[in-house]
Amino acid sequence: MLKRYLLNTSGNFGIMFALFSTALMLGAGVAVDWAGMVKQRSVLQNYVDAAVLAAVTAETEDPTELQRIVDEHIALLNVNGWDISAPVRIVDGDVVVDASSTYDTLLLGVAKSLVGNPNGEHLMVGTSTAAPLLQGIPINVALVLDTTSSMDGPNIEALRNAAETLLFDLEALDGDIRVSIVPFGEYVNILSQDGQPWLDTSRNGTTDNIVDEPYQRRDRLTNNVCTPTGRIIPGNPIISDGVVVGNRPDRDEQTCVGETFGPEYTDYLNYQISYEWYGCAGSRDNGDNDRAAFAGVKIPGAMEETASGDRNYTRNARCGDELLPLNNNFTNMRTFISNLSTAGETYIPSGLMWGWRTLTREAPYTEAASSPDGSVSAMIFMTDGFNTRSQKDVHHDGGDEDAGVALGATICENIKNDSIHIYTVAYDIPNVADAQATETMLRNCATDSDSVYTPDNAAELEADFRSIGSRLRTVRLKYRPS
């Protein structure tokens, strides 16, 4: 009998098919529904993130009111009609929302029912988000402003209005808000810091006497002789401080026979170079010129050099208004903004570096050292032109625009690595090829794409500054795994 039972396979195929089909259905159900659950959880996370930000910026700590705000925001966002539970609790000053919703399975529920689970068509999806209440969150902001010559006239008025509006918005925040203001051009002015141990102004007021300096020269024998061809050559654009300010006049095309010179000989020059410091901060040598901290390497003052005698020239090293370190005197800040002056060319690394230095806890500037742990630091960097200068020894009067852009990009990365959020504002930058490298650098310099602003006029500049002020009201979300 046992032998006949073992040999009887007439029903085995049906049993095996049923088992195999169930396994296939379970596998397909797991794959499809897992993807659906992951997507629903991601959308739920977005709902809860938005709701908790609305709650913590509502300037209330009442749990009932916080719950109402969270429920209302989730209801507005919940276009799928999910059954969402999002209880609110306060933990160590954080508003915590633990959210869950029911996921309706497609195949997994059917597959689970086949194996005896009648409730398999419903699964729970959960997530959790926390953010600190707005009150008491310290914020340090460096407002780095282009005050070069191209900002003269309507542009500086637009900047004054936008910056003053921003300061009013920041002052209205309920918390410890401090702001530094860093006007920049070729240099940043730090005049009042003379005598600090991190600053080298030792050449100030000194004179070098140059005696019998050999100089190779040739005498001109004949001048250029040029003949017009009758054709007109259009004038090139006039670019001042990275901004197109007009066009040169058209000129006659000419063919020229070059000047000729006699043999080279050695002449000897005698002259004096005098050094004066007007507050301009120079740059350290390569290797130290992209770091903010003093760290024992002195920062040189950029001296204005004036030569007299057999050589006559002035190497300009003048700068605009002195930077204002971190402070919370908003009346004084607005007065400072209203009196901003304009001058000079654009050296972007200078503004970035000294804006960064006002936000650090160590020398050169140490105002941030008194900030409580958990303080948020941000830099708002605004310019209206592309980079036109580069570092040349300690000065910023070189003409390698690309080198200045490259150094600026490096400094940007170092600032972001220092946990400082960067907003960049490229104000009506001219649409010329030379500006493209700077525009790209500014986009990449910002912490994220939402922190890049490109206003074209005064109204847009003020609106963008207000947008940044509004973003500074919000706090960074702290994700808690559920």
Any overview of this molecule?
This protein is an alpha+beta fold and 482 residues long. The longest helix is centred in the N-terminal third of the chain and has 45 residues, at 12-56. Helix 9 (436-445) links the parallel strand 23 (420-426) and strand 24 (452-453). It starts with a helix and ends with a strand. Helix content is 32%, strand content 29%. The chain is elongated and about 100 Å long. It folds into three domains: 12-132, Nuclear Transport Factor 2, Chain: A, CATH 3.10.450; 139-191 and 321-479, Rossmann fold; 209-272, no CATH class. The strands form eight sheets. Strands 19-6-5-20-23-24 form a six-stranded mixed beta sheet, sandwiched between helices. Strands 1, 2, 3, 4 and 25 form a five-stranded antiparallel beta sheet that branches.
Shape, per Cα inertia axes? elongated
Q: Could you give the order of strands across the largest sheet?
A: 19-6-5-20-23-24
**Structural class by sheet pairing and helices:** alpha+beta
CATH class descriptor name of the largest domain = Alpha Beta
Count up the domains: 3
Instruction: Enumerate the spans where pLDDT stays under 50 for 5 or more consecutive residues.
Output: 1-11
What is the strand content?
25-35%
Provide the residue-averaged pLDDT. 87
What Rg, in angstroms, do the CA atoms define? Answer: 33 Å
Q: How far is it from the N-terminal to the C-terminal residue, by CA?
A: 59 Å
Characterize the main sheet.
Answer: 6 strands, mixed
Number of strands: 25
So, the CATH homologous superfamily of the largest domain? Answer: von Willebrand factor, type A domain
What is the CATH topology of the largest domain?
Answer: Rossmann fold
Can you count the helices?
10
Helix fraction bin:
25-40%
CATH-level-2 architecture of the largest domain: 3-Layer(aba) Sandwich
